[in-house]
Amino acid sequence: MAASIRNPILPGFNPDPSICRVGDDYYIATSTFEWYPGVQIHHSRDLVNWRLVRRPLERASQLDMRGNPDSCGIWAPCLSYFDGLFWLVYTDVKRFDGNFKDAHNYIVTAESVEATWSDPVYVNSSGFDPSLFHDEDGRKWFLNMQWNHRTESFGGAPKSPAFDGILLQEWDERTRKLTGPVKNIFAGSSLGLVEGPHLFKRDGWYYLTVAEGGTGYDHAVTMARSRTIDGPYELHPNPHLITAKDHPEAALQRAGHGQYVETPDGQAYHTHLCGRPLPPHRRSPLGRETALQKCVWREDGWLYLESGGVVPEVTVPAPVMTDAIPEPKVIETDFDEPDLPVEFQWLRTPLPERIFSLTRREGYLRLFGRESIGSWFEQALVARRQEHHSFRVETVFAFAPCTYQQVAGLTHYYNRHKFHALGVTWHEKLGRVVTILSCPGDFPHGRLTYPSGSGVALGDGPVHLAMEIRENDLQFFWRASPKEDWAAIGPALDAAVISDEGGRGEHGSFTGAFAGLFAFDTSGSGLHADFDRFRYEVI
């Protein structure tokens, strides 16, 4: 029997974990940014085994991210439960570059996580990373960081003055509006870049945890407390509860931004995001993942990591004896069901019927060629998270292009300036070809390179494509028939540039690498591609 939690508990792109316990059930909500539907909610009963159960922001009345820039969209949700309802607050960020963020905060509710969630109630736009605290007297308090545009905080290089403290204001459930004065209750520590606030109450103290240091290698969970909800707040003696910023040797880097939770018998845990960078460049293709640390309360009334110090551990004690369910080494879908497999998402649009169908041709995922790969509006790209540093993906599909403006295939994708794609298209001299389109971190221009030149000529019929990623290296393969051997195409490419730190740098991208299927048709004809299979194998 195992009795330990193995971090990260949610591998791959799962940042900003907000944890909520209801009875014996635990839920974690994480950010999804420009990926649709919005917000991932995982469930567990033992803190060891987790299962994705819901993405609640699933229709146009709740969320429309067409036009949202890369790494905008849903930031830092907060999930809570009070008075028979689940409450989810979140930000929809509409701008990234320049001095402004245009961050709009909303609340949705549901009687159960698996139910249909309400339409959103607008709250404010003064900053991002909102949370909702339900006090013992029934009053509700809304928190978010305040964004100050009057600084040089833009272009992927944030400065502390832009992160202008944590705002607190009462939220009136009857009127569904904020009420009373707005108070700036916490400026953060000297580390700066204060964000991600979460409140909880224990033994008459209001405890506040925030994220600081930016979501790169200086990240931290900072803790403070006050006898009154609006402060003043005194800092933790450390003052950071969790951080790896001074420990480059730690297995879990970039640790910060999480939330406290207690088990039914009073054991203490705290979530946080983390990264597992690859040497030698310290890039994190898996993005910001979710981890969980065991904590203890000491006689001074402060929370500490049970392991001592502030550095997060890979293995921590679980609250109960439990078996860890082995993860499958191969995940394969034949697209035989009428719904997209739960591990897949698409980009931005609340109108998925415009970009894919699982019913137009039985047993196939049909992608309708829309705007170019990397479009912020309507691109047909359906993908799943990269969850391992080494893996292989295979697919087979039918596609009959008649112009070079029509391309479909397989991609290792982060955003418009960080992707590698193996596609089938048309060449005026070679006819139908398989070729590579790559944008290896060219920010801000997003210019393509073509590592296989004009490509390799193909005959008619379905085409098999594959990509194999071994840590920092990616190799594409193709074949015309399952009776043939796989043939490598193009050189080994830089897989690690498809990462948070690749291209623009660590504070310029917030999601993670995906493996997926794409189709675009910039002629406007909407030519479709029919994908018969998608296979993800850990190697």
From TrEMBL:
<keyword id="KW-0326">Glycosidase</keyword>
<dbReference type="InterPro" id="IPR051795">
    <property type="entry name" value="Glycosyl_Hydrlase_43"/>
</dbReference>
<feature type="site" description="Important for catalytic activity, responsible for pKa modulation of the active site Glu and correct orientation of both the proton donor and substrate">
    <location>
        <position position="129"/>
    </location>
</feature>
<feature type="active site" description="Proton acceptor">
    <location>
        <position position="16"/>
    </location>
</feature>
<keyword id="KW-0378">Hydrolase</keyword>
<feature type="domain" description="Beta-xylosidase C-terminal Concanavalin A-like">
    <location>
        <begin position="333"/>
        <end position="537"/>
    </location>
</feature>
<feature type="active site" description="Proton donor">
    <location>
        <position position="195"/>
    </location>
</feature>
<dbReference type="Pfam" id="PF17851">
    <property type="entry name" value="GH43_C2"/>
</dbReference>
<dbReference type="InterPro" id="IPR013320">
    <property type="entry name" value="ConA-like_dom_sf"/>
</dbReference>
<protein>
    <submittedName>
        <fullName>Beta-xylosidase</fullName>
    </submittedName>
</protein>
<dbReference type="Pfam" id="PF04616">
    <property type="entry name" value="Glyco_hydro_43"/>
</dbReference>
<dbReference type="InterPro" id="IPR041542">
    <property type="entry name" value="GH43_C2"/>
</dbReference>
<comment type="similarity">
    <text>Belongs to the glycosyl hydrolase 43 family.</text>
</comment>
<dbReference type="GO" id="GO:0004553">
    <property type="term" value="F:hydrolase activity, hydrolyzing O-glycosyl compounds"/>
</dbReference>
<dbReference type="InterPro" id="IPR023296">
    <property type="entry name" value="Glyco_hydro_beta-prop_sf"/>
</dbReference>
<dbReference type="InterPro" id="IPR006710">
    <property type="entry name" value="Glyco_hydro_43"/>
</dbReference>
<dbReference type="GO" id="GO:0005975">
    <property type="term" value="P:carbohydrate metabolic process"/>
</dbReference>
